[in-house]
Write a structure and sequence with these properties.
250 residues, Rossmann fold, seven-stranded parallel sheet
Length: 250
Amino acid sequence: MPDDFGGKRVVVTGAASGIGEAIAAAFCQAGAAVLASDLSAEGASEAARRIAATSPSGEIRPCTVDVTDEQSVAKMVASMPDGIDVLVCAAGLFFGGNAEETGLADWNRIIAVNLTGSFLCARAAIPKMRSRGGAIILMSSSTGAHDALPGAVAYVASKGGVTMLTKALAVDHAAEGIRVNAIAPGPTDTPMLRGLMSEAEREAFGRTLPVGRLGTAEEIAGAALFLAGRSATFLTGAILAVDGGQTAGV
């Protein structure tokens, strides 16, 4: 039976589109009260409107947050005065380039959003979870969870950092009833990927996977609901590959 998240309070970053929006929608449809947070105030508001139209059982409201800014993150968390049951850090960026091609500004931005942003959000949410437990879900990647994609040094480094951040948070806070896991999505048909590849390139990329296609944002959202739900209460410190078999082969 699917989990009922009625009465649960959920924060999702990067919720304006793609995987973040799909996760926010999935929790809202499962009855949760969701804070859909994003750097884009307009994007967060539009996503909240779209989700509300299809999720009569849950509640959703938008929030503007810069995950790289400590005070902005603190303000987001403070807007949940009754506590947080689930935090999903889905805000992320991609930048291509090897070490010689990657400027320091680009390196710092990718690390700031993908890695430091996850750290700041988790650090701020933990006190809101301590009295009753909770679930934190970070977003790693099939590229960076345990291997590297050529020509993406900053992205790979940031996602590798998220992998180890997940494990560190898990062992530090397990005794407090706070579970911390990560999803490592494989190639997923999102606005980010569409900005990097043409339709023909995406289709060809999908055919290289064992399942023969790209993933969908809704499939990643399903993994998030599992990790936050009753079936995963003994699961912490895990990196869940949702990648169509991409990393199963050599």
